[in-house]
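Supplementary Data S3. Sequence and structure tokens for construct A.
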Amino acid sequence: MAVKTRDKDLDYILDEMVDVVENSKDEIFNISEEARSEHEQLLRELEYTKEKVLDYIEDGDKLEQNVRYSRKRLSEVSKYFDRYSEEEIREVYESTHELQTKLAMLRQEERALRLKRDELERRLQNLDNTIKRAENLANKISVILTYLTDDFKQVNEMIEEAKEKQEFGLKIIEAQEEERKRISREIHDGPAQMLANILLRSELVDRTFREGSPEDALAEIKSMRKMVRSSLYEVRRIIYDLRPMALDDLGLIPTIKKYVNTTAEYNNVKIEFTSIGEVKRINQKYEIAFFRLAQEAIQNAVKHAEATLITVKIEICSRNLNLVITDNGKGFDPTIKRDKSFGLMGMKERVEMFDGIIDINSTIGLGTKIVIRVPYERALI
């Protein structure tokens, strides 16, 4: 319970961190967009101001020529004062003064526009730097966000996987203890009881032979033989469940075939078995692994999937061992992790030990297909 609480706290802290980073990224994006908008506006204003400066320069140059011409005329009028009337002198003087005033105002406005142009260029430069810094910061935050969402997620998955493996290990220990109890009960209730009965019946045979007729003693011996055969069958069945002796004697293909026939008959389910490739012995650890994989997949289809048809196909290739188990059972959603689903986890662990690949395809209501591929070169004897 405490572990689950810590996991929830860690997830909550991680979600809070992600929210803060995402909000910061949004704020930086807004700042960047505002800077871009202002940059475009200032750029248009700068272009307009530059055009105005050029217009003022052109108008100023023209006006300056007029001023020079007017001052030259004024100098001439002043030099030959007696040749001009008082009205002409006043007109030349006022015209020259007016032109000089206009030129001064025009130059002043030109200087103001130049200052505005320079200020706009400085502001644009600052906005460029702001946009670049915002973009760099947004990229860094994206990296941080990716780290928080993806890498931390992988860390959580690794932690979860480690916890599952720990639970799987504990489950194996529990399963071993349960298996010991089951075997103990089966031996006690089966062969042990039968052996005890055989012992009692042997004493009865001895008494019958001494006190009764030989025919009665012979009948008791026949009955005792049946009990011995039944006890021997139970012992062999228990041994087979622990480890099929046929696996050591005959190999993988005959053992799976025998197991398929026995399981189909016992559970009243149709199981089709096909083997492809040369039927030959392979390394014992591969034989054991593939028998257990087939056994687990078939038991899952029978017990959990409630299948009525199961197909088992094993293929011994030159470079791979392939195993395909298909059923028409009720199926499940492989994307949903189910608690205590240690059967499939055990299969995955066993396949990974041989650097193999297991692919589980299942759809609710449409059955399940399990495909296992394991490298085979070193498996040959």
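Construct B, processed identically:
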Amino acid sequence: MEILNADIPEIHLEEYTYHLPQERIAQYPLPARHDSLLLVCTKTGERKDQTFRKLTNRLSENTLLVFNDSKVIPARLIFRKETGAFIEIFCLEPAEPAEYNLSFSQKHSCVWNCTVGNLKKWKSGSLLLYNQSNDAFIQNMHLQASLVGRKEGKYQVKFEWKGGFSFSAVLERAGNMPIPPYLRRFAEPSDTERYQTVYAYERGSVAAPTAGLHFSEAMLSEMEENGIKTAYLSLHVGAGTFRPVKASDVREHTMHSEPFHATLDFLQQLQHHKGPVVPVGTTSCRCLESLYYLGVQAALGKDPVFVDQWEPYTKHPRMSYKDALEHLIGYLKRDDRDVLTAATQLFIMPGFSFRTTDALLTNFHQPNSSLLLLVAALVGDNWKEIYAHALAGNYRFLSYGDACLLFNPK
């Protein structure tokens, strides 16, 4: 297998932005998930307006929809100092123990990497969780937080509590849903259900895989009846998904890394699938495309655990996607494992060669975002007409907004 060097493409950010009025950002979801609008862009660039409920009509019978089943955790915790100052702690990922499920199962204490709001008011000492409603459960739990370190721009916070509850139970009772900052409002009780997909399972995300928010249970059943196949992997969406690209030369941007896992059964299902593959959301797309480069690593005798953001642009292996999957499957079988656990920093931008994405189901994304660059990588300059059409057609934007189905023109 030959590995060829190639230059990273020069991308100027000002070519991949647009004006998004604040009033076009959906503040709340529609009453029914599947009543959102869906803008379909065909392989030839033709645009069609419809409702999301009719998605099945746009997919061939042998389509495989790939979902991210990561579950959003109530990651925002509000503490209060004795002086009355409020401190918001946003849990990003576990540090001690570092494995998600192990951290969630802790009964007395754990350490998480966090961002801290109003940090200047918290120099030292422990904080007690703010119990505005005088909840007896929260009072007896006596949740405290203390700063124990700083690493790579994140603060390490140790949480301690009483009562023998698991940390997942602590978060469920004491935490708030981490709705996106651009909504400019506090989380409400309805967000607990609606900022979560109906198929969410693996706890760990601090932002929803929003393309999946449009699917109702009725729609999932209907697709199954119509021969649409489904598969699930798990990528824990990090807060970095909201970080704008600030460098005018995109090559200077550092992409965020996110952990994910895919089961052996999933890899084998993907390997044997004969029809179109459609990731539901940019997170599923990043996972699917990352699997190819992990397979190449396995073929070279390396442990497939991490995809660097520039790997697709600096290395061009001559291997099919199916062969890459075969090497991943072989790697797992040799180690007698049934789950591939890895992380991806993959940066999909114009110049990227998609290996398995036949179409992408996604929402409308922020200007100057890595997600918009991903869309442009798939549909080329046509992204401008697509977004102009959506703005002119009164589509709702961002996490609680409408969706688009973008077919790969190549």
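The chain has two domains: 13-71+195-407, 75-175. Residues 52 and 197 are 15 Å apart (CA to CA).
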